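Section: Multi-chain targets

For targets with more than one molecule, the full set of components is provided together so that the structure can be written out for the assembly as a whole rather than chain by chain. Components appear in the order listed by the source. The example entry contains two components.
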Amino acid sequence: MNRRHLLLAPGAAALAAAFWIAAPMPAAQAQSGGQPIRVGEINSYTGLPAFTIPYRQGWQLAVEEVNAAGGLLGGRKLEVVSRDDAGKPDDAVRVAQELLSNEKVELLAGTYFSHVGLAVADFAARNRVPFVAAEPLTDAITWTKGNRYTFRLRPSTYMQAAMLVEEAAKLPAKRWATVAPNYEYGQSAVQWFRQLLSEKRPDVEFVTEQWPAQGKLEAGPTVQALAAAKPDAIFNVTFGADLAKFVREGEGRGLFRNRTVVSLLTGEPEYLDPMKDEAPEGWIVTGYPQEQIDTPEHKAFREAYLKRFNEPPRQGSVVGYATFKAIAAAVEKAGSTDPEKVVDALSGLALSSPFGPIAFRALDHQATMGAYVGKTTVKNGQGVMTGWRYADGADYLPSDEAVRKMRPE
Amino acid sequence: MSFYLVQFLSGLATAATLFLVSSGLTIVFGVTRIVNFAHGSFYMLGAYLGWSLVERWGSTPLGFWGAVAVAALAVGLLGALMEVGLLRRLYRSPELFQLLATFGVVLVVQDAASWIWGSEDLLGRRAPGLRGSVDILDQPFPLYDLVLIGLGPLVLGLLWLLFNRTRWGTLVRAATQDRDMASALGVDPARLFTGVLFLGSALAGLGGALQVPREAVNLHMDMAIVVEAFVVVVVGGMGSLTGAFVASLLIGQLQAFGILVFPQITLVLVFLFMAVVLVIRPYGLLGRAEDAPPTAASPGPPLIAAAGAVRWAPALLLALLAAVPLVAGDYALIVLTEVVILALLAASLHLLIGLGGLVSFGHAAYFGLGAYGAALLVKHLAAPMPLALAAAPLVAGLGALAAGWFCVRRSGLYFAMLTLAFAQIVWSVTFQWYGFTGGDNGILGVWPADWAAGKAAYFWLTLALAGGALLLLRRAAFAPFGYTLRAGRDSALRAESVGIDVRRHQWLSFALAGSAAGLAGGLYAFSKGSVFPTLMAVPVSVDALVMVLMGGIQTLSGPVVGAALFHLLETEAMSRTDWWRLVLGTIILVLVLAFPKGVAGFVRDLWTRGRDA
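Its structure, encoded as tokens over all components, is:
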């Protein structure tokens, strides 16, 4: 009857595999002077398009500017090969390998999720290729799991928490409640906030904590549970859809009446804009008041971005832009694309960003890019920041001694 | 006291949404026996459509409720469309195959929604007239939530009337109880199914549209709800509306009060609850014993070992693959390594599904346990690679032995959901146990030993180990053990009566499948250099299931072909376009329609027909 079925199917698979092996070998041609400098870029474009698309536009602008100014190393163009990581670390590692072997990229950059960033960082160290992590916030990527080849641009969880602690310590509030998504980002944000605030204000106590599953906040019960503890102030780490739910339900149930809320990242346009006129009033936040910053470097960036994409930049746009400006500067400083030389160039590299001068610390490869700290309010049906100031990242890092202790060497 | 009352009410509001969505799922499942993964997608579509319409008409109460109703009906129509255009063509396929079709729909809807409504979260208008809150014992409580609380029982009542007081409802109940008898008595099943899909999807759409005033509509809503809806359905007892209602209430209250006692439990609470319920009650709270386990594989023609020259096909393939490193580059090699590993994963799942008739929704747990078993040994004990690799199947096998003991005492979807519950428990422990497993930041630096560090060397190692394991699995299928398993699958009663301990064999096959998946996980860990809880999360279980179904469950080569096909398609689509989910989903739909018995099944049929002609 059907005794031969076992043959055909594997045969078909082998055939398919053979086709596929034969196909993708494009970029294997000889690389010599005058060839473009290729950077492999990986991010969660399908998983988190709302954040990664502005980011992509940011780096596109940077690359165009670099090339319009004559490229790098005497006329070599900067070329980016961009890939989606589907939001999964194992996919990201495969994609990184593809970029390295097939596309012959000289550097890696990008990633959004912390675990994806860590996986690529480890891959970069293993393969001795420089990696500029753009968006991941986890402290581990530059500290406990830091390595020679990995650099990170965005201010880390610790830095952003420290910026907020400075403001929180000025409040009269003594009883604090925390609400944070139930994963490493939420955990370490709350941990640092508690530790740093308790150091500055030994009289505060933390009366309750809520840990909703990321993306599945049960808004009603969570809000009620926070209110029941009668805190003077709340530290919030939820973001995105959870944040919108939390704000709506909290307003509906009077949670924010006579309470100060200190909230991580909420001032970024990515999170503030979707809430429109329901953006919370008077929260102390870190963020990016893009329409109000009038330093020359930011104005130039914002205008160029507006002109190119016909929409205002977001936090991700700045990150994407600065990441690729940093890569360009590093290659130029190294005078070659040799990975070791680029890594050496990135260590201590100083450059100008839309937020002002920043540097990648030689100590831990963390950039000193900061964030804007201010209060939220609603103006013309849109959430905006007021009374903000720029908190330079360099001022919100632990002592060199403490950092050295954390980094494996 | 007032606090507890309000917390109780909040739990009721949560339960209302959950009930609306899961009632639709349970109706669809009860009648059609389709495991409808796309149910969450309909919920999401309901929310998006609701958002669009509420933005347009929602300034008056009439407009708002009209918008909600229209959104629900529109989603119902989409559901009916899916039945007519897709599922109807698959009723003669093995029953699980429709699951693959609905998975294709999930992928397509994800990208379609992102294309139509954009990627940003959409915060809709609040319900006019219900914006404020009322004070209940001095605690403010949103008016809208009160309406939702009332809506749950109202819908339950209406559904009860529909099913008990109308002819159509009677027919649906008849079909739920005995599909074949109903159609023998002249009930057109196709029309009935279309109607049921319409109703079920409309309920999902209603649940989604009603969320517009409560939360920002976003692209992750489908996945967030569908698993929980399945939990409700199974806890309540499949096909039981009242059961779904009771289960929603219980889960709503558990979530409301659980976070007061133990705030960190949010990740795992519903799954723990489901595991406990299923261990105590085999058919959920109000389910009835099924005469036929719904998700068991339909047997099809028996497996027959290849004879003659064909016997050497696997060896030939192995030899061919072993020669690949001579021509292929690094990247092709690591993708091939992954294909070989995933083939082992899919084949191990096929041992359960194809031979045992046991559909597991939680197979990723053992893949992940293997990966973590290896990685933890490397991290904590600095174990050398061979030792760590040897530990992978052991750890996973032990895990499977423990979970399997409970799981094999259930059948059909109850079995499937119990495996899912255990997988989620393992996942959440891994996710939160920072000190030991590294939590969601995973374990880094799990690289192969120097002698296996080269891409070719590691590929050969994988080929040897995974190939060996695959041969062993094949051997098991044709050994008395495999025949016994198949006997248990085809007729547990007869098998028992000739003295076979079916449960014991299923239990052992669960452990064997688990340890094979564990070996795959260990190999995967070293090929990636790092492990994360994502390896044991739901998407991996679903992927494994999709691979098995894509290849077809009636042949042993099916899962291998399916794994190769699925992984190559996914990686290729991913590196070429941002719309890869749309591409992949469409390909799956086309494959499902073109090869209703899976790719390998199709090839085999072709072969058989050619020989018989």
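DSSP finds 25 helices and four strands in chain B.
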